[in-house]
């Protein structure tokens, strides 16, 4: 095999941070090359250098494509060279149709200034077929699930005759079936000679599809492992990423569980726009003081809908049901009521719902718990900075202290800030919706420690997760949901993947 891409001695600095320090990367023709590393290790930055997001001159080092030196001044230069990047945050324009998105900036024209809509639609249909989508090209892209939008992004790349496809955490927001589909597509594209670079925190998917793995740590390339000589050892990758062995993936815990604090009864919610479509159907659950309770279910089971609707009716149309706190009914008509009742909800879509990206880390961390750092309703800046720094250090958010702009953090570190924000509020009930999605293995452990500490201090935790090992490793009790109903409840010592999976697929007779 010959080398398609060689990056030599790449160094990229931001004010106060060396994001990449003399990085070497070699990618062979036709391979799937994975890039792994902790949050903030430099993965996205390296790919932004490669694709011209950071133009030539903004970094030092060389990029060679098929032996020829490249100096891209922007993304359109790298596209001309056959490189396409699909960013961690999807970049489609929601208001435009599927076809318009695919040919945005690369319009099919009939003479100057005239877009050939007929040809646009037929060509769009053709590339959509290549990625296995049977979508109507004229449908608005916002009507598609995240998984399908991801495929539209790939279709867009294919429409530009891509040679090297870069995917930055493409599966972090996808369910299992969608992830499988996407990984299958990568393997198919590989058969067609397309080389890809895949950034992922999921060891399982990397060892499944990648031919080699380069591990980054603190801006340095640690090593490149080949999978052709057999399976890469997951432990070796983890050691490269975190710089030490990680024996335990879940911290030890001695649960101290008290009386029932929160109870949800007969919870019933309809879809916000589709009249009469029931998304949560008579659900009931209880959570005790100091207890970590899991909520298992497949995509569409209604877990997020249940959580969001309990959190001050922030989803759907309320039909029926009551929330009790300490045995008394509480009326949660809006988010304000929910927060006043001591409930916090960390959403799964953190980019949309969680952060003020142009404010600093300190303000984002303390926003939901300003009373903790105020005296007579006036914020005490010194106390605020100290408290925020404690939380930042505890969660190992990689930054220059707490005054850095949150939007400059790496994707995973932004997620840690959202989590930290709600933990800082010291809620009585903390609802976590997929809290470790996009978070590296080392940082996951830190988050588990903090969640356990909150529980040990007496908080109730409801953990929604699609990763069964995470539920089994963390929870005292797990409820399973299917088609909007709670289908069962399993205590920790009786819980295993099979039992849960059975309950998660128990449909109505
Ligand atoms: N625009 C920016 N301004 C300042 N610092 C930045 C900027 N972009 C990235 N950084 C810093 O560079 C480092 C590497 O960030 P990068 O986004 O490449 O990490 P990553 O490996 O992709 O992490 P993740 O797994 O969390 O996505 C981080 O310390 C980050 O804070
Ligand atoms: Mg990243």
UniProtKB/TrEMBL annotation:
Give the protein's recorded name: Sugar ABC transporter ATP-binding protein
InterPro entries per the record?
AAA+_ATPase, ABC_carbohydrate_import_ATPase, ABC_transporter-like_ATP-bd, ABC_transporter-like_CS, L-arabinose_ABC_transporter, P-loop_NTPase
Entry keywords, A to Z: ATP-binding, Cell membrane, Membrane, Nucleotide-binding, Repeat, Sugar transport, Translocase, Transport
- Asked whether the UniProt record includes Endoplasmic reticulum among its keywords, one would answer no
The chain positions of domain ABC transporter read 5-243, 264-508
Instruction: Spell out the molecular function terms from Gene Ontology.
Output: ATP binding
